[in-house]
């Protein structure tokens, strides 16, 4: 856990403490965002925005709560907004038939926030051990080796648990995508 005195100094506007905070977390935030965006430049820009928001809202940091959770919630929300904007751009460049969709119906089709919430619900339904491994890897951005070491498991077990959890979530996302595609085809006819 991050030393409370560093966060307290950041809250007071200490630039050096903020630099320490940045140095500790930037790589983890970047890797997390890269998994979301699959674009180096997008992840780089979003990581900068995360730390800009941290600095701008530093007085709201609650040192009694998990800074990691606060930090990765900001990163998650920025990534969702980024992907929404990207989806809107793609939707905006579709042919005239697709443009005939009402904007609120289009929003319903591409509401990534709902999809993210569905994924979170699926994660919460995973067996406890798999859930812990999944959250450590995707939310706390630990490598498979780090998870294996912290939980006293083999790397093979961690990979297996991540694979099983990912398969379940992937199936749910494919189902939602098929339903959305069916709805879109219906509206385009």
Task: Provide structural commentary.
- This protein folds into two domains: 93 residues, RNA polymerase sigma factor, region 2, helix turn helix motif (Rna Polymerase Sigma Factor, Chain: A), CATH 1.10.1740; 94 residues, Arc Repressor Mutant, subunit A (Orthogonal Bundle), CATH 1.10.10.10.
- It is globular and about 50 Å long.
- The protein has 189 residues and is mostly helical.
- The chain has ten helices and no strands.
CATH 2nd-level architecture of the largest domain: Orthogonal Bundle
- Weakly predicted, low-confidence segments: 90-104
Helix content: over 70%
CATH superfamily of the largest domain: Winged helix-like DNA-binding domain superfamily/Winged helix DNA-binding domain
Structural class based on helices, strands and sheet pairing = mainly alpha
List keywords for this structure.
mainly alpha; Rna Polymerase Sigma Factor, Chain: A; 189 residues; globular; single chain; Arc Repressor Mutant, subunit A; 2 domains
What does the secondary structure layout of this molecule look like, with pairings?
Elements: H1 4-11, H2 15-37, H3 40-56, H4 67-92, H5 96-99, H6 103-109, H7 112-125, H8 128-138, H9 144-151, H10 155-188
Helix pairs in contact: 1-2, 2-3, 2-4, 3-4, 7-10, 8-10, 9-10
At a glance:
The protein has helices at residues 4-11, 15-37, 40-56, 67-92, 96-99, 103-109, 112-125, 128-138, 144-151, 155-188.
